[in-house]
Amino acid sequence: MTALARIVVRLRFLVVALWVVVAAFALPRSARVSDSLQAEGGSLTPTEAEAVKRTMLENFQRPTVSFMAVVISGPVPIDSQPYHTLVEVLSSAAESQPYIDQVVSYLTVADSRLLSADRHTTFFLATLTEDVASSPGHLTPEFRRVIRRAVLSVRDSEGYEVHVTGAPALDYDGRLVVAEDARRNELIALIPAAGVLVLAFGALFAALLPIIIGVFAISCALAAVQIAAVFFPMSVFVLTIVTMVGLAVGIDYSLLIVTRFREEMNRGQSPKEAATKTILTAGRAVVTSGLTVIVGFATLLITPIIETRSVGIGGLFVVTVAVALAVTLLPASLAILGRTIDWPNWLARRLAWYHKPTAWEGWARWLSRHPWKAITFGLVVAGSLTWPLTHIRIGLPATGWFPEGTESTIGAEIIEERIGSRGALLPIRITLQAPVGRQLLSSRYLNGLRRFSDSIQADPRVATVNGPVNIRPGMSRLAYLGLFGNLKAARARYPEFFDAYVSPDGRTTLMIVSLADSTTYAGATEVVRRIRGIAANGVRSLDSVEILVGGFSAASLDLQENLLAVFPTIIALVLGITAIMLLVAFRSILVPIKAVVLNSLSVAAAFGMVVLVFQEGFGAGLFGLDGPTEAVYVVTPVLIFAVVFGLSMDYEVFLLSRMKEAFDRTHKNDLATMEGLSVTASVITSAAAIMIIVFGTFAFSRVLVAKMMGFGLAVAVLLDVTLIRMVLVPAVMHIAGRWNWWPGVRLPAEPPRSGD
Questions:
Q1: CA distance 583 to 653
Q2: In the predicted model, is pLDDT for residue 51 greater than 70?
Q3: What phi and psi values does residue 547 have, to the nearest 5 degrees?
Q4: How far apart are CA 426 and CA 416, in angstroms?
Q5: What class has domain 66-170?
Q6: Which top CATH class is 356-404+566-756?
Q7: Which of 18, 89, 293, 477 is deepest in the core (most CB within 10 A)?
Q8: Which fold has domain 1-44+203-350?
Q9: HSE value, Cβ hemisphere, 13 Å, CA-based, for 100
């Protein structure tokens, strides 16, 4: 740090110029980053759901792996000529596209599941071709333009409501919403954050610097993400994390640096001397705290999921850039600006009261006299907030899963509310494959197929099961034997059905399970578990058949199980590496143990509040939800833990660094604890207020995962800065006495202080 301080201050103009060059490179790339990201996500390791998709693409002539759904609502029934004409025109327009394989509508199959009870609302499915089925979201804008042109070409079509939905459209709209929310929330958060900075600094110019650093950190990190996306699939959710964390840590680190610089200037040092001292003290604390945040993001790289690994990469970029800016560009700029940052002086005089430690000295003295009372109070509050965590349910939320207000979500809601066929949009797909050289529709396997299909249909959460033994209701085993006895003739008789459900060689078949309209997303994953359980236990006459279960619900379950399997490793790595880093930084055994335990307590309490608000629904309406989600999406606790553990450690490092400085100077633990708390309290509370503002803004996003993340991070920071840093940490420091700094410092015991 000494060498860095010398170089930054001596070459301050060059440092600023180099960062200007970086900005010129980063800003254009960051503006185009959303074009390089994907909404689909998925696993980076083989899963059962991915195997189903691969089997369908490899074995079926017209696999229905992915499709668009066009929802049409009219003022008259579908039987009327104008409505009938509109459906035909839209179907023909869709089918004429090179990326559409076939169109299935009520007019072609007369399936009542495609039509509402009053016959005013219908939808048709446009199946995507094999070459685009694996990543079809980018086709949504073009397909919507085709449908809109077709609607305008039909006379008297003004009274009809047409929406394009389906999994590709939902993914595409989700990507747009995440990008729009990230930009909007960044702008919204800047205004109150600027107000806190003006209060903290008492100067407009000084308040402007951290905002510039925060926005600069985001731009540089997004540019790096755009480059990384060329080599690695990056999820759109990285935008939310980079914006949230970049703004929060960029401003926080800058707040610490600028505060320390002004403190050194007030002691009579020159701008260059103050900048050097700032790097050696506050800069060291920023590097240490930044490394603890980086540890959390780095552990996400071991997860096998695109979403979480993307967040890990984005987090590493933005925190690294924020630290680099805080210890190079900012001190260099301060060394150049000097007292200019205090402009206007009259404002600084009016707000001087905010910086005085006297406001916190009374609290610090009370804690020194009553540490056990403080600990008892803190543990009771933390335990109460953590209690709901014991009832956490990991799974797909029952409500708020897709962004509200988008065309795809509106279309999906119309299908659910008016037609009652939500399961048709996100069905469960089951592939059954016989050994090489055998046909699955032979008499050997027929009874097993019917038995397996009937056992699935017996579940009340299942609406229908479509497959090779469900061609017509009530069809007997003898009739199926006769039909399947000559597969060539059967395929000629039912060409569309066999192309969709039976491979050309007869070795592989497909079953499509549509869930009842009352089945929640969490219930859907339970259905997947049940079907996989039936297959694992063995079905008579299908003992040699490979049965795989896929689809949206199955893919979500695979993701959940993969993340939960690696979550304990993430926890162990974060706790262990953070403890070792603090051990090295402070040469103490007790400090890292205390930090890890108390940080874990604040994270657990934040999880408890997420469960209470979202899963149980207490106050969920404040965040735009209709009711309880009934479950917490697995990505949420993994990301919150990895992100917030390091972020909350920031304040631990800031606080302990000043306590250690005071202890090294006075060799009195109680005095050092009180001084460290009094001097840093206003900075820590200001920094925490900014983080709470930034994270809290994202709690009102339109994407459920972003809501949970923003809320969880905001609550965790709030608890950390109030309950942990201002109550429990100093109380424990008072009780531990000289043992806080053992074995780095060996001193005789302090004189006893007055008890409670």
A1: 12
A2: yes
A3: -115, 125
A4: 12
A5: alpha beta
A6: mainly alpha
A7: 293
A8: Multidrug efflux transporter AcrB transmembrane fold (1.20.1640)
A9: 23
Output the CA torsion sign for 553, 558, 559, 561.
positive
Same fold, 66-170 and 356-404+566-756: no
Helix then strand count (H, E) for the chain reads 29, 8
Q: Is 140 helix (H, G, I), strand (E, B) or coil?
A: helix
Sign of CA dihedral 340, 341, 344, 345: negative
Retrieve residue 208's tokens: 């402007």
Peptide bond into 743 cis (omega under 30): yes
HEC string of 638-696 equals HHHHHHHHHHHHHHHHHHHHHHHHHHHHHCCHHHHHHHHHHHHHHHHHHHHHHHHHHHH
The rounded distance, in Å, linking the Cα atoms of 298 and 312 is: 6
DSSP label at 418?
I
Partners of 125 in the β-ladder: 69, 104
Strand partners of residue 123: 71
CA of 442: how far to CAs of 448, 484, 753, in Å? 11, 7, 88
Q: Where are the domains of the chain?
A: 1-44+203-350, 66-170, 356-404+566-756, 435-544
Other Cβ atoms within 10 Å of 543 Cβ, number:
9
Tell me, yes or no, if the pTM score tops 0.85.
no
Which of 551-560, 594-603, 675-684 bottoms out in mean pLDDT, i.e. has the lowest?
675-684
Nearest alpha carbon to residue 41 among 308, 282, 240, 220:
308
How far from each other are the two terminal CA atoms of the chain, in whole angstroms?
43
Which amino acid makes up residue 424? A
DSSP state of 74: -
b/e string for 718-737 if b means 16 or more Cβ within 10 A? bbbbebbbbbbbbbbbbebb
Look up residue 595 and give its two tokens.
């930090």
Q: What does the block give as tokens for 151?
A: 């609607």
Helix (H, G, I), strand (E, B) or coil at 268: coil
Per-residue pLDDT of 680-706, as tens digits, reads 777 788 888 888 888 889 888 888 888
Question: Which amino acid type is present at position 490?
Answer: A
SS3 632: strand
For residue 428, which of 299, 532, 349 has the smallest C-alpha distance? Answer: 532
In whole angstroms, give the CA distance from residue 304 to residue 746.
46
pLDDT tens digits for range 412-428: 888 888 887 666 777 89
- DSSP class of residue 462 equals E
> By the 8 A CB rule, do 35 and 141 touch?
no
